[in-house]
Amino acid sequence: xxxxxxxxxxxxxxxxxxxxxxxxxxxxxxxxxxxxxxxxxxxxxxxxxxxxxxxxxxxxxxxxxxxxxxxxxxxxxxxxxxxxxxxxxxxxxxxxxxxxxxxxxxxxxxxxxxxxxxxxxxxxxxxxxxxxxxxxxxxxxxxxxxxxxxxxxxxxxxxxxxxxxxxxxxxxxxxxxxxxxxxxxxxxxxxxxxxxxxxxxxxxxxxxxxxxxxxxxxxx
Length: 220
Fold this sequence. Notes:
Blueprint: E1 2-7, H1 12-27, E2 33-38, H2 50-63, H3 86-93, H4 102-112, H5 121-131, H6 138-145, H7 148-163, E3 171-175, E4 181-185, H8 191-214
Parallel strand pairs: 1-2
Antiparallel strand pairs: 1-3, 3-4
Helix pairs in contact: 3-4, 3-5, 3-6, 4-5, 5-6
């Protein structure tokens, strides 16, 4: 069984969903395969100004009952052909052994809690290198983050995101071995996702039990 988390590193709703993601990984360790993938936001999905970004942060923070407000000072509207660098740096870090959450979480925290401009490639690389504990080389990471290969991977994962007929991040796609699939788009709380995982694991266990008693279905 696997769950795929589609995200944008600098999305505030993805920031709020991270505790749920971490809790899911603790609850279902060794029973579920967890993976995250970048789903690029379209130009029209971004705020049009820093002031509007701060307004969105106030709204999401109150909805999540946060005791703190996110910092919008990192943000400037992307220019034509530009895209905030943080997601590209997080994706590039996979090539150096960082397929887990640590680099993208550091980038998200740097932007939304510290106001650091991780939309700029050099700043995003600096944050990632610090989070890598000496295992990331800035020059190599910068080259990888700007590479066609990383851009192509993000294009593929973004197309996969939209193939589920969804538009909101965070998104969670849950699939099990018997062909069931559940899709959550825009939810940042753990309860509905955990309940679905429990139900799908139970169905897998039931199929395994039946097979143990009766074997595979007879041939046609």
